[in-house]
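As the next step, I selected for study one protein, both as residues and as discrete backbone shape codes, as given directly below:
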Amino acid sequence: MTSVSLRKALAVFASSLIMILAFPGGASAQGKIGFVNLDRILRDAAPAVRAQKKIEAEFAKRDQELAKIADQVKKLQDTYEKNAPTLSENERRNKEREINDANREFQRKQREFREDLNQRRNEELASVLERANRAVKQIAELEKYDIVFQEVVWADPRVDITEKVIKALDDARPSAK
């Protein structure tokens, strides 16, 4: 059995298992199914937008500093290229070393910036996801959903409860942080 056909078989099995577990009376029983688009929640919900703005504000200064360093490295490189023909071999080596050191320092700071940014983004998104999952659970319990999916290939718009979740998140008071 090829890996593609094995995946298809596993997908069919998983779907059947979900139907059996969700609807003990059989797949023909009328169960209530919902779907939420997590990407849309993380893009459109007020807490996600606030988190993104908070992160942007938090990292704006470092981003500007990185841009200045990049400009300085570029100016060093441009000056070197312009003056290289008139420099002695020793001066050329020293300038190349200076440019390489500045470039290495820039790359190190850029890498640290990306790591810190990703860590903060993950922290903020985890908080938003936690609140979104609570909202999904509340909606599911209130409206008597049997199952709510987050990851699907396709879902009929009539089972999409994303807008309800976004509204619940938007209506909730911002968390005190």
Summary: The two ends are 53 Å apart (CA to CA). The helical segments are 3-22, 38-44, 46-83, 89-142, 162-171.
